[in-house]
Amino acid sequence: MIKKRLIPCLDVRDGRTVKGIQFEGLRDAGDPVALAARYAREGADELVFLDITATNQRRQPLTELVREVARVLDIPFTVGGGISSVADVEALLLSGADKVSINSAALARPAFVSELARRFGSQCVVVAVDARFVDHQWQVMTRAGTTATGWEAVAWCREAANLGAGELLLTSMSHDGTKAGFALDITRAVSDAVPVPVIASGGAGQASDFTAVFQSGGADAALAASIFHFNETSLPSLKSYLHQAGIPVRL
């Protein structure tokens, strides 16, 4: 049976890990290198590093910091933020990333997803989807969640998978940082619509939220930040809880 994955996320701004609510009100959560080492030690299945200001600042990702984080990891490592070219991806992979997460660049030019999949393999390409519930539907946002795209979330996820994305990182902006639980409806809808793994993100507040997103939401993996960063739960205790609940996880 395929194991469900737990993935801490490092949202990085100015070299520090930060966390807010619905992409706003960011507060410092610590040194990304130290946090990465801790999560690898505690049994994280993977780690995601998102340079959250790179796209809006129109700059390349922080490759030197990515290199420092990669040095302390022995688990799969995904990096996103500011990626807009094949050269950006090559630089990140050479810096120690195993996968890249693209969002705004994929929406601006969908063929970019296919280009990366052909060059590096679909297993390397994660398309991140930031969705907000507006006017009775889940709308895809771009540029760090600041701009509506006109895409409905399930439709864009299906398109991204068809273009060659190996995974989808689905974040509910409406749930992000609220600790009210994952968005089970859109997670299930996307999981049912695509043939690739779906990583659920946004809203984790307690252990039972993970059980719900794996069972009711159909997610293949769950990403969280603040509950790990601020020691509200630990990866070992969460995995033990999920194992006892019958969720297949790597112990």
Automatic annotation (TrEMBL):
Subcellular location per the Swiss-Prot or TrEMBL entry: Cytoplasm
Keywords: Amino-acid biosynthesis, Cytoplasm, Histidine biosynthesis, Lyase
Catalytic reaction(s) noted: 5-[(5-phospho-1-deoxy-D-ribulos-1-ylimino)methylamino]-1-(5-phospho-beta-D-ribosyl)imidazole-4-carboxamide + L-glutamine = D-erythro-1-(imidazol-4-yl)glycerol 3-phosphate + 5-amino-1-(5-phospho-beta-D-ribosyl)imidazole-4-carboxamide + L-glutamate + H(+)
Active site (record annotation): D11, D130
Record bears the keyword Lyase: yes
EC identifiers of the protein: 4.3.2.10
Main localization of the protein described in the UniProt heading: cytoplasm
Subunit structure: Heterodimer of HisH and HisF.
UniProt function note: IGPS catalyzes the conversion of PRFAR and glutamine to IGP, AICAR and glutamate. The HisF subunit catalyzes the cyclization activity that produces IGP and AICAR from PRFAR using the ammonia provided by the HisH subunit.
Family: Belongs to the HisA/HisF family.
Matching HAMAP family: HisF
Protein name in UniProt: Imidazole glycerol phosphate synthase subunit HisF
Lineage, highest ranks first: Bacteria, Pseudomonadati, Bacteroidota, Cytophagia, Cytophagales
